[in-house]
Amino acid sequence: MRHLLLLIFLLFTGICFAQQELKGRVLDKQTGKPLAYAKIQYQGREILSKIDGSFSLSLTKDQTELKFSYVGFEPQNFTVSQAVEYIRVKLTPKPQWLTPVTIISETNKANGIIKKAIARKTQNAPQERLISYHFKNYNKFLIDNENNGLELQSDSTNFELSTVINSEASYFSEKVSQFYFSKKQGLKEEVLGLRNAGFKKPIYEILLLSVNPFSFYHKDVRIFETDYAGPLQKSAFKNYEFKILDTTATARPAYVIYFKPKRQHSVAGLEGVLYLDKQSLAIQKTKAQLLGAVKLEIDQEYQYFPNENLWFPKTQKTTIRPGNGGKSISVFGGMISSGTVQKKQSIINNILTPGKSDPNLYLTTTSTNFDIDLNAGKNFNSSAEITVNPKANFRPESFWRESRTEDLSSQDKITRKKAEWLIKEKKIEEQINLKNTVSLGYYPVKFWDFDLGKFFKFNNYEGIRLGFGGKTNNQISNKFNLNGYLVYGTKDELFKYSLGTSIYLHKATETNFNLNYTRDIIETGSFNYLQGKNEFSILEPRFVNINFFYKHHTISSGFTHRFGSDFKTELQFTKSDIYQTKDYSFLLNGREFSNYKLSEATFSFLWRPFATFLKTPNSTKLIEKGYPKFTGQITKGFSGIFGGDFDYTKFGLLVEHEIKRLNQSRTEIILEGNYATGQVPLTHLFHALPNSPRRNGILRRFSVAGRRSFETMYYNEFFSDKQAMLHLKHQLRPITIHKLIKPELVFISRHAIGDISNPERHSIPIKSLKHGYHEFGIELQKVLLGFGLGAAYRYGPYSLSTFDENFAFKFTFHLDI
Predict the structure, then answer these.
(1) What's the confidence (pLDDT) of residue 99?
(2) How many whole angstroms separate alpha carbon 538 and alpha carbon 376?
(3) What InterPro entries does the record point to (predicted)?
């Protein structure tokens, strides 16, 4: 044993002495500024410095000759010994290269090459050039320790990743996938093998991160859930400056083009170099970086296929490491920083204490494409962009040995073992399950998930509404749940409750059978979509000021089912007894109905054709929302069936569209139409979501603004049996006051038009919207902890006589979950 230890020690010592790491920086001698991507040649090798001028070399000789060069500067050669650990190289500008004419010439030459490369994208970009192709991919993703810390500050809902980071844990995963591309279906991924070290159950969401962009040809390059302006998009010259650094002397020579953002403050951009093939101007290689509070580095290489004369993405490595301070950079849809920068406020952060992040964490992922087959007709029929093979989580070790494009290093194996131990020791899996449950509006306590929206509410009819509710979880059964709630209104002094069950008939298609009995109140004139509703909201702004409800005792049953990934449906049958809370009656055929029975069948759908989905063996998960999305509903009321008094049909269609831009501005368009025909009482007509209490004085009407509500329209002012509404919102780029205070200025325009047939059937006077209702608003959102201020003004045919009556002053409240 002693001889073995001695042998290992001597071998390790020999390796250490045989190889020495040399670090340094390349600077402009005149200005002292770093030279990004300076060329460094040594021992027959060639590398480029990083964007801060830094470099790192492994020297294996006692004396090594180094050559430093940069366009527009005098090259410099010198010899270093292995004893040297750090050098600072200062290059002198060439005076003859610094004339204005030459600089313009160099700039124009680089711009000319980029302009031609953009024009040739249809011939060089695989997804534009090829009809179809398929390939396999091996991906390795790990989180480990380094000298300085990372802490996640994000708008993203990726609780799996943030939990690992903020719990000081290591993470290691491997994934093997088969990718299929066709012009008709786009790029589809089938996950053949998946392994998450330390987790008992598969963690799919953490692998949904768009860490590695397929190529840099795209208009927007998505890295770690954040879009950056692509250097080869049509507006490249608006966002980037270009400069030729060098040409390569390889079998297929390439231009080395340096690109740097022009307006980083408004448009997220990368800084790096493109290696463009001299003949085809296709990308051979890309290096890109971001420096600030952290370092983001991307290295992507392409493989040349001579038969197709095409360069195809081959390998990529992306790393986030601790930086040298300074600006935060955009990652994970938000910001990632080092040290103790606080995360953006969210419901999750308010309810849970995330803990301190390990001050030494970094992230790295490597990805390699292999078995590449171009113009192959092999397709994969799936409506989801990512589909997990049922065997993916049960692959034997032999599968991984055969599928890895490189053997696991000793450090990889150490990280994997450490991840297994830390995730178990710190109960990371339990934390992830907790946060995922909370994000859906529930807090688990043993076998019961409490509904966070049932504890406390307030409105003008019930006063304070206190109670509790929720559903059973998998500790009771994974085949069904029991659900319900019990609440009490302090003003009306009545209990309301609901009891029900959901039976999971087929989890993969979300086919459930639901049965419920409910005694509660509903706002008069409201139209609630069964599908597409917000899952969870602690604060419901309009609910506070509602004072016109009706009581109902309802038995409901029905089914939910998902047709493909993007089309979810629900069919519901209900029998309701309706009771009035105000003096109202419905006049029909000489009879007055103040209390009545309704029998209804409702079909509701949510269609998201532009969203992307992950299909696992037991569920479908939304990856990216995608717009526009469509929510629709048809309700048929039957008379004479189960005692129903009225016969009618109601239709509703809600179209939501959102345009997000790289400069962080956003435009939102919401269009909704409602139509009812037949014998419809006031309780089941439509209002336009009014959100202004009818009180004298602007401050007495002060309330919280809603998303789709008319802020100057008084409650119970208008009712319709046919109406259309349009909401337009434009949010400007956030105003940076402090790294934690970035308010958003939003301009809003709202419009509604409607009418009502047979107003004489209703015992109270009804005002319609046939002349068109209009309001304009301005909001300053997210000033502090999600709160802001807003104002709206009513104009047009329904404007009132005084400024006070037309004006509304509001709180705004937006939480990023």
Answers:
(1) 36
(2) 51
(3) CarboxyPept-like_regulatory, DUF5686
Q: What share of the chain is helix, strand, coil (3-state, %, to 5)?
A: 15, 50, 35
Q: How far apart are CA 254 and CA 258, in angstroms?
A: 13
Residue whose entry in the numeric block shows the structure tokens 């002693």: 2
Tokens of 49: 């410095």
Does domain 507-813 fall under CATH 3.90.220? My reply is no
Kindly tell me the burial class for residue 666, based on how many C-beta atoms sit within 10 Å of its own C-beta (0-12, 13-18, 19 or more).
Answer: middle
* Alpha-carbon separation of residue 131 from 118, 137, 182, 378, 734 (angstroms): 20, 20, 6, 11, 41
Of 297, 273, 295, whose CA–CA distance to 285 is shortest? 273
Q: And the tokens for 345? A: 């406020």
Mean pLDDT by 10 residues, the chain (817 residues): 45 49 87 86 84 84 86 85 85 59 56 94 92 93 62 46 57 91 90 89 72 83 80 89 90 92 78 94 92 80 94 91 55 34 27 37 86 84 89 93 90 85 81 80 92 90 94 94 97 96 94 97 94 64 87 97 94 97 92 95 96 90 90 96 95 95 89 96 95 88 87 94 96 82 92 95 92 96 86 96 93 69
Element (H, E) at 159: helix 159-166
The CA-based angle 693-697-698, given to 5 degrees, is 75
Its pTM stands at 0.83
Contact 775, 769 (CB under 8 A): no
Distance CA 724, CA 692 (A): 20
Element at 645 (helix H, strand E): none
Closest CA to 521 of 585, 567, 459: 459
Q: How far is CA 248 from the centre of its chain?
A: 39
Q: Which of 17, 28, 46 is nearest to 93 (CA)?
A: 28
Let me know: does 780 contact 789? Beta carbons within 8 Å. yes
* Residues 753, 756, 759, 763, Cα dihedral to 10°: -70
The pLDDT of residue 107 is: 53
| CA distance linking residue 661 with residue 230, whole number of Å | 13
* Inter-residue contact 106 to 73 (CB < 8 Å): no
Instruction: Judge residue 568's burial from the number of C-beta atoms within 10 Å of its C-beta, 0-12 exposed, 13-18 middle, 19 or more buried.
Output: buried
Residues with Cβ < 8 Å from 640, sequence gap 6 or more? none
Query: Which fold is adopted by the domain 18-97?
Result: Immunoglobulin-like (2.60.40)
Domain ranges of the chain: 18-97, 210-321, 443-505, 507-813
pLDDT for the residue numbered 3: 47
Q: Residue 353: what residue type?
A: T
Mapped to the 3 state alphabet, what secondary structure does 570-603 carry?
A: EEEEEEEEEEECCCCCEEECCEEECCEEEEEEEE
Cα 714 → chain centroid = 35
3-state secondary structure of 353: coil
| Integer Cα distance of 154 and 162 in angstroms | 9
CA–CA separation, 347 vs 726, rounded Å? 29
Q: Is the peptide bond before 253 cis (omega within 30 degrees of 0)?
A: no
What residues does 587 pair with on adjacent strands?
Answer: 592
Interatomic CA distance for residues 325 and 339, integer angstroms: 9
In whole angstroms, what is the distance from residue 767 CA to residue 604 CA?
A: 29
The span from the CA of 604 to the CA of 634, in Å, is 6
Phi, psi of 371 (to 5 degrees): 50, 50
Q: Which two tokens stand for residue 140?
A: 């390795």
| pLDDT at residue 130, rounded to an integer | 92
- Judge whether 711 and 693 are in contact, CB under 8 Å: no
Quick one: tokens of 266?
Answer: 């408004």
DSSP letters, 639-650, are SSSTT----EEE
Q: Which residues pair with 618 in a beta bridge?
A: none
Tell me the C-alpha distance between 497 and 50, whole Å. Answer: 63
pLDDT for the residue 368: 94
Q: Are strands 612-615 and 596-607 parallel, antiparallel or unpaired?
A: unpaired
Number of alpha carbons in the 13 Å side-chain half-sphere of residue 229 = 26
